[in-house]
Amino acid sequence: MLTKAFIPYKGYYSTPFSRWQGSLANEHAIILAGNTSKRWLADKGWDPKMLDYLFLGMTIGQPQWFYGSPWAAALVGAVKTPGMLISQACTTSATCIFQAAVGVETGLYETAYTLMADRCSNGPHTIWPNPNGPGGEVISENWLMDNFNKDPNAGLKMIETAENVGKEGGFTKEQCDELTLRRYEQYLMALENDRAFQKGYMFSPEVKVSRKKTILVEEDEGVTPTTKEGLASLKPLIPGGILSFGSQTHPADGNCGLVVTSEDRAKELSADPSLNIQIVSYGYSREKPGYMAAAPVPASQMALEKAGRKIQDMKAVKTHNPFVVNDLYFGQQMGIDPMGTEELSFNDYGCSMIYGHPQGPTVGRIIIEGIEEVAMKGGGYFLWTGCAAGDTGGALIFKIG
Questions:
Q1: Quick one: CA dihedral 122, 125, 126, 127, positive or negative?
Q2: pTM of this prediction exceeds 0.90
Q3: pLDDT tens digit sequence for 350-382
């Protein structure tokens, strides 16, 4: 359990997420994230030199990402700030935030910055030497699609691991469709009142469309309108399965940033000093091979145990759910309604299954949304959890108020 690491209220931002090959498809992810963070810090009136360390979270390589965090820090304006690159598939943001919190907890630094960015669009195609290849044949790898399509340990596509969990839970396609529609309706909550909820944390990146023209990307791009009839008409992607195109996420591009600091410094930086955002505990897990969607359960149980709390103590649960089976299984195993209740909301205001998955920054945005939601409700505990490649999972608990 942590006691000394805090996030200032409004000490964070996320860009909108753009479906791959959209408005952010040609932007270098590190440069875009660094420039966006610099503009955001200037908008806050904060000096980048206050940052003692920068954690850069990325999963898809970009040109010269060897220089990763120090380069990003220089772009932000923190020219003397060191840092490191963290890549942990879909839980990258959570790991960055937790490592920053541990550094604050131990007194290694007072104020850290976690900057998460990825561009799934136009990703790398790597060629590896193959000494045994006839005629100089090489080994090639598409960083995005090849890894979606095969876990080298389990030998399965990611969707196959989700289908395994669906079978174990005894779920049906009708249940998947019903919860998928609910998740879409929850996302629409964030668009009410002229996107009031999203405007509370979103910061628009600047994108050059020509040498003389720059635009701001102000809203999510690529969210698919969803209806009960539309979902019912979609066939399972795997014959005999329960998951369709509508009940899984899609690759996207974007970035986000969060400040992690001491309690006193958080109050100084907070938009509302009466709102404390404490990082309470972390959990991790690894499931049996080929059961990735089940991993959030043991990770959450660990985080809850370390915090000395029960799932019923949470005001909100937010998940990274690349497949809707994640939430069905989590609800079944944790004894809560995946549709959510008035006492315990479950993915209100959106989730990665609906607005997309840029990988590195996905969880950061979800955590930001959870903080905003619980703050609106007057405070309480908030659990984030999600799965990651290799049948692993992570969880973080926050206390707001």
A1: negative
A2: yes
A3: 999 999 999 999 999 999 999 999 999 999 999
